TrEMBL record:
Domain Rieske: 243-333
Coiled-coil segments on the chain, per record: none
Chief location of this protein within or outside the cell: membrane
Record-stated family: Belongs to the Rieske iron-sulfur protein family.
UniProt key word Electron transport: yes
InterPro entries assigned to the protein according to its UniProt record, in alphabetical order: QcrA_N, Rieske_2Fe-2S, Rieske_2Fe-2S_sf, Rieske_Fe-S_prot, Rieske_Fe-S_prot_C
Keywords: 2Fe-2S, Cell membrane, Disulfide bond, Electron transport, Iron, Iron-sulfur, Membrane, Metal-binding, Oxidoreductase, Respiratory chain, Transmembrane, Transmembrane helix, Transport
Region Disordered, annotated ranges: 1-52
Entry-linked Pfam families: QcrA_N, Rieske
Keyword Aminoacyl-tRNA synthetase: no
Biological role stated in the UniProt entry: Iron-sulfur subunit of the cytochrome bc1 complex, an essential component of the respiratory electron transport chain required for ATP synthesis. The bc1 complex catalyzes the oxidation of menaquinol and the reduction of cytochrome c in the respiratory chain. The bc1 complex operates through a Q-cycle mechanism that couples electron transfer to generation of the proton gradient that drives ATP synthesis.
Protein name according to UniProt: Cytochrome bc1 complex Rieske iron-sulfur subunit
UniProt membrane topology term: Multi-pass membrane protein
Length: 351
């Protein structure tokens, strides 16, 4: 016996494919759909053709080999192309490291996917839901399923495939570990982060030309990327620039709500570190109407008119303010270095 519910009131005839016909067997719950069951299994080419199976195995091995080559390439590039102070060498080094890392990780990912799709068992299976804590018998069955899966993957009988898998997985972590460990003798002097090139009477110059800036040249609403005078003459200009780069903004003095120090601005011109206090990204997006600085990495937002305090996002501290004034010729100069370390938190930082 069966019951048919016709929903033909929408203008469609029952059974025409456009209405909704639900046929229930005797004893079935009208609020549930019947279980359609598993569809018929369709064997893959690699299941019925030994040559196709072997070809798929060679493809997986080739992908793992790509990962191995990428990892080795990363290691070679790390030692053969050390970071240099010139932008060109830095670009080449980053490109080589990025390609090696990408190939290493991509090879493992593609190999795993292709292995699963072409060589492992693809029969669909269904398991009933049960209590979160399985019984001891179920746990033993789970272990057996894992063993069966390993046996089904035939990894024990595929020596070349197993060697490629182990080699790629063994080499890939080195692409992450090497940059973290660093070269032998690397400088861990964190006190360098507590100071920059800025000093009393050090002129503010335009990045990257190094041209000094007069206060009269900065109009209300304008933003200027600033570096300290003489940056290119230092032993490590890129390292110094990474700490000392500043964003200069001119506001209407009446819009300034607060400063981090008395007299640290000049006629509405304020200068703040360009390094985000979250993870060190360059803060460079200025909203003229709201006086907000936005970090493009994680959307931390700072209010320039109110001591660069955080108004949104994950950053926890305001951007450090650089005390500025003008010299006798009208050029903008620093009154001193920043009064606190710039950038994100690090060990040994007091606040």
């Amino acid at each position: 016996m069966s019951t048919t519910h016709d929903h033909g009131h929408d203008g469609h005839e029952p059974g025409d494919g456009l209405g909704t016909d639900v046929v229930l067997r005797e004893g079935e719950d009208a609020g549930r759909f019947p279980n359609p069951g598993m569809g018929p299994h369709r064997p893959r080419r690699s299941d019925v053709d030994p040559a196709a199976n072997k070809r798929a195995e060679r493809q997986v091995v080739a992908l793992f080999t790509v990962s191995i080559v990428g990892a080795i390439g990363f290691i070679v590039a790390y030692f053969a192309l050390p970071l240099d102070e010139t932008p060109e060498r830095l670009r080449i080094s980053n490109l080589a490291l990025g390609l090696g890392l990408a190939l290493s990780l991509l090879g493992i990912g593609l190999a795993a996917v292709h292995w699963a799709k072409a060589l492992m068992n693809d029969h669909e299976k269904a398991e009933d839901r049960h209590a979160q804590r399985s019984s001891d018998e179920t746990r033993a069955q789970a272990v057996q399923v894992l063993k069966d899966g390993a046996q089904d993957s035939a990894i024990g009988r595929r020596g070349v495939l197993k060697g490629a898998l182990v080699s790629s997985l063994a080499l890939f972590p080195l692409t992450i570990a090497l940059p973290l460990i660093g070269e032998v003798g690397e400088d861990w002097d964190v006190s360098k982060f507590k100071r920059t090139m800025w000093a009393k009477n050090k002129k503010l110059t335009i990045d990257p030309t190094g041209r000094p800036i007069k206060a009269a040249d900065v109009t209300i609403g304008s933003v200027v990327h600033v570096i300290p005078e003489g940056l290119d003459e230092t032993d490590a200009p890129l390292d110094e620039k990474a700490k000392a780069v500043v964003l200069l903004v001119r506001l209407d003095p009446r819009d300034i709500k607060s400063e981090q120090g008395e007299g640290w601005s000049y006629d509405g011109i304020v200068a703040f570190s360009k390094i985000c206090t979250h993870v060190g990204c360059p803060v460079a997006l200025y909203e003229q109407q709201t006086h907000h600085l936005l970090c493009p990495c994680h959307q931390s937002t700072f209010d320039v008119a109110d001591s660069a305090k955080v108004v949104f996002g994950p950053a926890k501290r305001p951007l450090p303010q650089l005390p500025i004034t003008v010299d006798d010729e009208g050029y903008l100069v620093a009154q001193s270095d920043f009064h606190e370390p710039i950038g994100p938190s690090f060990w040994e930082r007091l606040r």
